[in-house]
Amino acid sequence: xxxxxxxxxFSLLVGLQGCDTFLDAKPDKALATPETLADLAAMMDNxxxxxxxxxxxxxxxxxxxxxxxxxxxxxxxxxxxxxVWDPTTEQVFPWLDAYNRVFIxxxxxxxxxxxxxxxNSLAQADILKGQxxxxxxxxxxxxxQVYTLPYTKAAAxxxxxxxxxxxxxxxxxIARASVEKSYHQTISDLEAAxxxxxAKAQFKTQPSKVAAFALLARIYLIMGDxxxxxxxxxxxxxxQPNLTDYNxxxxxxxxxxxxFHEEVILHATGASRGGVFNASRARIDTLLYKSYVxxxxxxVLYFRRNxxxxxxxxxxxxxxxxxxxxxxxxxxxxxxxxxxxxxRMEEVEKGLADLNRLALKRWKTGTFVxxxxxxxxxxxxxxxxxxxxELLFRTNIRWSDLRRFAADPVLAQTPLRxxxxxxxxxxxxxxxxxFLIPASAVNLSGLQQNSR
Length: 452
Hints:
- This protein is mostly helical.
- The protein has a domain at 6-222 and 394-444: Serine Threonine Protein Phosphatase 5, Tetratricopeptide repeat.
- It has helices spanning 6-17, 26-32, 37-44, 56-59, 68-73, 77-83, 93-114, 120-147, 179-196, 209-223, 226-239, 286-290, 298-301, 331-344, 348-360, 379-390, 397-405, 439-445, and strands at 64-65, 160-163, 176-178, 264-266, 283-284, 303-305, 311-313, 329-330, 416-419, 422-425.
- A two-stranded antiparallel sheet has the order 1-5. Strands 2-3 form a two-stranded antiparallel sheet.
- It is globular.
- The two termini are 22 Å apart.
């Protein structure tokens, strides 16, 4: 084990100082030695905490395709390579951005341990601690989806996970923990955060108890712990059950969903990464588009038809429909998690009831026929199909699903790309489900690189 790579430390400082020098900018002085709760709160509310989440997995996912000329026009070489699952491509910026946010969270946690508070200040300090623990966990979760192989109970203890930076000390030796330990540290952070955070945050760019419960549900689903995922989804829904009636949403609006709308629990956005997801570039997978029936309002709210007959996505929950995808958490995902886990626990009627609650808000009024055990031959597959149709283009959701399905011979899928006369594929169990760690981090710290 060696000390924190210099490139990582450099990124932490540059990411916070912007155009000012480190010693001249007041926010950076606060970062160096934050002395007050206001200093720590400013760090938690910094825009870097809810922007630029990693989209390498989204570029590698199968909800869209690029035409040959569009792909050739992408100037970001990493994005071009990710699209065809090039096994040699390392992911530098997702690593730096995520550990930058982890570093900020650790600075807050370390200073809260050192400073002493009482009365109202103690209550505020507890909330800040909860926010920092949440952000550390949120970034650990994304790092796990990008840089580790999919979680399986049998192999998680032996597979290399992520670097679990739990202190802001940049002189601390680092190494990769196992996948098992990495997931459990993430869960531990979220459980501690949930105990400290308010049920709902003042602003949707701030973590909350419901956000912590929702992320725990997502993570336990990935791990295949369906009772725990169900329990946390239920706890989150109890705090925020809101579902938007799509009948009340404008079908002609360029941005149908307002930023911070009622289903959003936590707002965050992904990195642009070469503008792959600009409307002029990403085209919706043809079979995916055709899977929406005409009475399903998502067919008009999520997509817009191009003059050449292809379709683009306009249903971003971030409210902007730029190349920066919605990376946050929303209520609709919770109903789908609870529905899936109910069915996997053989409580099929409860699972279909949750699916019906969601679908009723998505179809034209008076047209939806509820799913039931008598008209649904394969409830699990039905729920997973609706999950894909509901949650497309949300950072790391589809990618995480492809990863967890890969170990299931029934659900495993093989995404394909057809580009310039060549067909590329991503096979179940492919080592490319874990992207390469930056070579600079490997060389400077001695971290184990992912296999190829």
